[in-house]
Each structure stands twice: as C-alpha cells, then as structure tokens.
C-alpha cells in the first residue's frame, strides 16, 4: 500500500505560479513512477507530468515549457512547479504513484483567474 498526501494549490492570477507537493509513505520501495494528473469540471482526468524513479520525465503538451516536475527521493516527495499559469489550467490536481497499480492522492484545487 502507498499513501499520498498533497499540499499546495489555491487561487492565483493568470501568469502567476504555484507549487504542488506530494509526500509518499508506505510501500514506497515498490513505486516506479510518480506524477500529477488533473481533472477540470466536465472533463476526463488527464496526465500533467510524470517522473520515473530514474528521473525520466514526461509532460502533457499543454504544459511543456511552463511546468517542471522533480523528485526528492530522500523525502519521498514529488514537486510540481507551475509557472505562467493560464485559466485553462484550472482543475483539481491529483498526485499519482504507480506500484503494480495506481495510487491516488485526495486532490487539490488549482484555480487560475483571468
């Protein structure tokens, strides 16, 4: 079992920045990748960014050049730094960890005002 606790998020104006943090606990030795997904009202959950245990990253086209993802293995934490935010980035953001199956955090709201 893997437990994920998210922090960060909130309300920001367009062009601003936010930082999301996700701390993992439990059977973290089995986690192969961690990342962030988001779900806007009326839309399906979509990938934002992933980082493997080796540091390989993958980003949605819509956030490339604006978002970065990093992993602190000593603290079992993954960070999503979001810059140049746009109103279309507004969504509930979910931390994800894959360890033979997907584990999810509780979600944190990000709202970008125009």
Topology, please?
Blueprint: E1 2-8, E2 10-13, E3 18-26, E4 33-39, E5 46-52, E6 57-59, E7 67-72, E8 77-82, E9 91-98, E10 102-104, E11 108-113
Parallel strand pairs: 2-11
Antiparallel strand pairs: 1-3, 3-8, 4-5, 4-9, 5-6, 7-8, 9-10, 9-11
Describe the protein's architecture and organization:
This protein is an all-beta fold. The protein is 0% helix and 58% strand. It is built from no helices and eleven strands. It has strands at residues 2-8, 10-13, 18-26, 33-39, 46-52, 57-59, 67-72, 77-82, 91-98, 102-104, 108-113. The strands form two sheets. Strands 2, 4, 5, 6, 9, 10 and 11 form a seven-stranded mixed beta sheet that branches. Strand 9 (91-98) and strand 10 (102-104) form a beta hairpin. The mean pLDDT is 94.
Averaged pLDDT, please?
Answer: 94
Low-confidence stretches: none
Query: Over the alpha carbons, how many angstroms does the gyration radius reach?
Result: 13 Å
| SSE-based structural type | mainly beta
Count up the helices: 0
The percent of residues in helical segments reads under 10%
What is the β-strand count? 11
One letter per element, helices H and strands E, the order comes to EEEEEEEEEEE
Largest sheet: 7 strands, mixed
Shape by Cα distribution: globular
Alpha-carbon distance between the two ends: 40 Å
Q: Strand content of the residues, in percent? A: over 45%
């Amino acid at each position: 079992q893997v437990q994920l606790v998210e922090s960060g998020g909130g309300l920001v104006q367009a062009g601003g920045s936010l930082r999301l943090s996700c701390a993992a606990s439990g059977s973290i030795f089995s986690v192969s990748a961690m990342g962030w997904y988001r779900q806007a009202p009326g839309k399906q959950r979509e990938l934002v960014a992933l980082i493997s245990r080796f540091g390989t990253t993958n980003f949605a086209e819509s956030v490339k050049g604006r978002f970065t993802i990093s992993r602190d293995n000593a603290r079992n934490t993954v960070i999503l730094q979001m810059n140049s935010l746009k109103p279309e980035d507004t969504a509930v953001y979910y931390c994800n960890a894959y360890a033979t199956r997907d584990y999810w955090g509780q979600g944190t709201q990000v709202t970008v005002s125009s």
